[in-house]
Write a structure and sequence with these properties.
It is built from 8 helices and 7 strands. With about 240 residues, the chain is an alpha/beta fold. It has a single domain, classed as Vaccinia Virus protein VP39 (Rossmann fold, 3-Layer(aba) Sandwich). Strands 3-2-1-4-5-7-6 form a 7-stranded mixed β-sheet, with helices on both faces. It is globular. It starts with 20 loop residues before the first helix and ends with a strand. Keywords: Methyltransferase, Transferase. One of its GO terms (biological process) is methylation.
């Protein structure tokens, strides 16, 4: 029986930063489909748009995406903000050079999106200055103490707001995905990694405790469909 009371400390196949070729391309396409089907990019862009409208006095926004993969979420968010007349620049960060190459090729005709090859979990990682820091199913890669340390350092890097769109760990989520994954047109890697991701994910209570330990009191965590939540932290 799988134990979902504690977080799993196991890497996924996609965490192999040397992964390349058709297996990577197909799996990134699978993740894009999952983001569309389960509404992740829609909820993320909705939260970003709301923040930008609440701070309309600001002429432009700098947005950084942690673990951007093939860049699909940033492209979607860029189009949404542009449709509402909001000026923004975007930086996607991922440790896999091939993923960044794929993302860069997709955005050759845009001048407001750039991508960086960096390992976010490295101790010497330096976050680019940004107004909004976003994570789409990435922060579970941090261990608890690592995430606390990362969040504690954000005020010193001029980050104003954090938006996290994440899975939460639950037995129901695990069993449901284990069943329906065979019906989804996604790669075997995405199917296997998906189960691991659910077991690695934070529960809402765990994330709330981490935010508190990081010294923040101004935040919200709201549950979304398909076993996800959106957490927003006011840094400045």
């Amino acid at each position: 029986m799988v134990n979902l009371r504690v977080r799993l400390d196991t890497k996924e196949q996609l965490d192999n930063f040397s992964l390349s070729g058709s297996s990577l391309h197909k799996t990134l396409s699978s993740l894009r489909l999952i983001n569309i089907l389960f509404g992740n990019r829609r909820q993320l862009s909705k939260a970003i748009l709301k923040y930008c409208k609440q701070h309309s006095y600001q002429k432009t926004f700098r947005i950084v995406d942690l673990g951007c993969g093939g860049g699909d979420c940033l492209m979607y968010i860029s189009k949404k903000l542009n449709k509402h007349g909001i000026d923004a620049s975007f930086t996607g960060i991922d440790a896999n050079p091939e993923s960044i190459s794929i993302a860069t090729q997709k955005t050759l005709k845009t001048n407001n999106i750039k991508f960086l090859v960096q390992d976010i979990l490295e101790e010497n990682f330096t976050l680019p200055e940004c107004d909004i820091l976003v994570s789409s199913h990435f922060i579970y890669h941090f261990k608890d103490k690592e995430l606390i340390s990362f969040l504690e350092g954000l005020p010193h890097q001029n980050v104003k707001h954090v938006i996290l769109s994440e899975l939460y760990r639950s037995k129901m989520a695990y069993l449901l995905f284990k069943t329906v994954r065979y019906l989804l047109p996604i790669t075997n890697m995405a199917k296997e990694d998906g189960l691991i991701a659910i077991r690695r994910a934070f529960s809402q209570q765990e994330l709330e405790t981490i935010i508190h330990k990081s010294g923040y009191t101004s935040y919200t965590i709201s549950t979304k469909p398909f076993f996800r939540f959106t957490a927003e932290i006011n840094i400045q």
